[in-house]
Every structure is written in C-alpha cells, then in structure tokens.
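Exercise (ungraded).
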Amino acid sequence: MERMDLFRTVATRRTDEIVVMTMTATLQWPLVSQHELDFDFLAFGMGHASDFGMGLALARPERKVIVWKGDGGLLMSLGSLVTLGRYGPENLVVFLLENRSYELTGGQPLPPRADFVALALAAGVEGGGATGRGVVERIDQLEVFAVRLPSFLTEPGPHFVVLPVHTTEPLPPVNHTDHAGRIRRLRAGLGLED
Amino acid sequence: MTTLGVSAGAMVDALCELGFTHALIIPDSESRLLFEALHTEPAIRVISPMREGESIAIAAGLWTGGAAPVLIIQNTGLMEAGDALRGCGVGPKVPLRLVVGWRGYAGAAAGHCPIDSAFTYTEPLLEAWGVPAWHLMSDADLPVLAEMDRTAARTSHPAAVLTGYAFRS
C-alpha cells in the first residue's frame, strides 16, 4: 500500500483522536493533517513511540490514541509488545508501517524473516491488553483498511495492525526541533496548559 | 540509631501523599518489598514494562496526558535507558520523577571491594543529564521525596532521589 494513501484515509475519518507519529511518518502525516492533537515523536527516544502512546492512552481513556510507527522502531524495543499485551488500554491503536527497512537512514534492510503479526501474537496482544480485548491483524489492501478503520476508532482494543507499505511520493526534509514546544502544544490541545 | 533502608509501607504512603497516580517499576533485588507494597495500594496503578526505556516513555506519555507517574528504576536500568531519558525527559522538559535504586552504594559505604561500577557512575551520569538528586537512605529522609517532586514541577525537568539500601518491611 502507498503510505500516503493510508494517511489520507485516516485523516479523512479522524476527529478528536490523538495521533502520535515517528520517523518518516513525521514527514508525511503533516501533509494531510495539521491537528492540535498531532504529536511528532521524532528524536524523543528510539523505538518508544508506542510506549509514549500507551502512556497517553492510559492517561486519557476518553479518547483514542493512534500511533504510526515503523517496523525498524519496533525491533528497537521489541519487549514493548509484551507490555502492550499485558497493559495495553482499550483506546490504543498501533499502526505498524511495515516497509522492511530503516527508511529514514537510507533504506538499510531489516532482518527479512521477522513476522510482526506472529511476534504480536506470541507476545499476548491478541485477547490481551488491560481488559483482554486486544486485536492483532494484518491488512494488505487499502480498500480493506478503509472498511476496517471505523472499528479501530470505535471498538475496544488495543489494536495492533500491521500495514505493509511503500512510498513513491517525495519526503519533505527532516525537522528535529522544538521538543519542549511539541509537548506543550499537545498538552494545550488537551486543555492541560494555556 | 537510624535504621538504614526505607520502609516500603512508609514509601508507599509518601508516594500517595504526593498524588502519584501510576508507578512504573521493574523488579530488582533492592526494591522487592516496595514492588510488593505498591501492589496493595489501590490509589497507585502499577505498571511493569519489560525494560526501563519503555518505562520512561510510558511515564512521559502519562504526564503529557495529565497523569502523575513516578519511575522506580535501578541505576543499571537507568543507564540502559539513557536515550529515553534524554529524549522523553531532559530534552522536552518533561518533569519526570525518579526513584533510582543506587546499586553498589551499600557495599561502597561499608568499604567493600571491589566497588560496583554501577555505584561509581550513577551520580556523575545524573549530573551529566542535569538531573538533581537527593539521598533517601532511611525513613528520616522521606521528606526529600516532596522536595524532589517540587523541584521537578518548578523546573519542568526530571529530578531524582537515590536509594542506597534495600527497602525493608
């Protein structure tokens, strides 16, 4: 699937969900969304975007938290799948962008045999999470993703969804700046700061 | 004579008084009794991630979302989690509150050799990150928890207490 098509699909349906993104997703998501509850996790901690998202989801159970993260990032904190399987809240949705490479650093290949659905299943995410309603799935077609998306945004999870992607659209330049400002803007969007 | 080591029950009471909502803790030898005591306290939700970098990122998300987490973390785990502390705490000015188990302190204080390198590098590392730290060695030191909490809030920066002895019953 073309990654930007996934982003456009979610941005069209998104209302008041928090969206956390990292790595190349931070370059392309802003092309389809400028929402006050968008959060750019780039350079906050390698591999930890979904952990940060879990903390947000635990603190804000009234709204969904969507995390866009890559397969390379997941491999940097693989144990977080087990944490997701044990504590993952119902309002957390992790979209794993599977491009089989460290795209931002030049496309170096990932270990070719890693099966991210199998890893999530083995980590206890399916039927797991804080209330035993975790869901793991893999979606290969944009049309199927569009059909399933409303359930991710309304039904209890945590949802862990593996999405094989590629991109043919040009990437904007990387911007690592203003970490404190990003946090403050999100807190302001949540009504926690002015 | 002061009894070395903090009572696990008194520590949980102090954490409750400060209003912490979540405790991120990975079991270690010195915090075993605190780990058990926290699980009997309904006011604080206990989360045990698989590795300390996860703990820090989850805590940062909790704080960003309006909760009040405390990280209970051994110095060795803190060293492993350096990038997470930099990226989720120090850099973005997230006021993480840390209770750091100072492995090696008790042996060094008793004059035992060889000295655990985990003891040696703990304070210099916190200093390098600009994380202020207070010593919490007995129940008499418990007021430093509130001082650490106030400092983190006032500076919007991580702050820590260092526990040099195992929590006791």
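Further reading is listed at the end of the chapter. For now, observe: The CA atoms of residues 21 and 68 of chain A lie 5 Å apart. The first helix of chain A runs from residue 3 to 13.
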